[in-house]
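If you are new to this repository, start here. Below is one unmodified record pulled from the training split, so you can see the exact layout before writing a loader.
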Amino acid sequence: MLVNDVFSFLDGLAPFSYAMDFDNSGLLVGDPLQPVEKILVALDCTSSVVQAAKESGAQLIVTHHPVIFDPIKSVIAGSIPYQLASAGISVICAHTNLDLARGGVNDELARRLGLGCLEGLSPIPCTDRDKNTVTEYLGRISFLPNPMEPQDFARFVKEQLGAGIRFTLGRRPVHRVAVCGGAGADCLDDAIQAGADALVTAEVKHHVFLSAAQRGITLVDAGHFHTEDVVIEPLAQRLREQFPETEVLAWHLTEIQVI
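And here is the target side for that same chain:
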């Protein structure tokens, strides 16, 4: 199996053509013709992830967040791209395309919170692999099996995601729930218009919390890592099923500490 085989499979799951204009998804480091016997799947490509790949003998890292996001003018010793190139490790990054795709980040976040029969939240025009314009959705919305009081729902999110959270107390029980993994506070208006009692996302600014409180919706900030790391194990499992001869490892640690 080659790096390009993995790229083609991921392109089928979450077409790289879905990536938003600001994004940098795809094969960002390495050789499409490199043979692969072991893959490491992680949210980010950090120094510890590169070290884990080296120690485990992985030739390919698959991440959600791009290892190269802003343009770079040099590649020097110690930088992540330098470490990867020196070790002969390739990296494929599936970012906003995996946010939008069915079965991606937001579907997995919704499922972790017990939501089923999912609907799309914020429509985004995309180009499919045949260059046709299609509509995908940033975020998902559905119903909890049983309504919860806002504070009980916030505790439930904390338990399900293992996250430290910040939240506002809405004015009504939480039954209809919207989710958007990562920095999804821009989905607040769409969530309210769709009749959500709560929105679960991350990186919410202070003034957005105040707006949510005034508008009576429960807004839960469960952290960028915890609202997106939910996709790593399911993605690793899909790779295992597609490439049974290849060992696929899932990495769930972050460099960011919370006390």
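Two things worth knowing about this chain: The longest strand covers residues 133-148. The mean pLDDT is 96.
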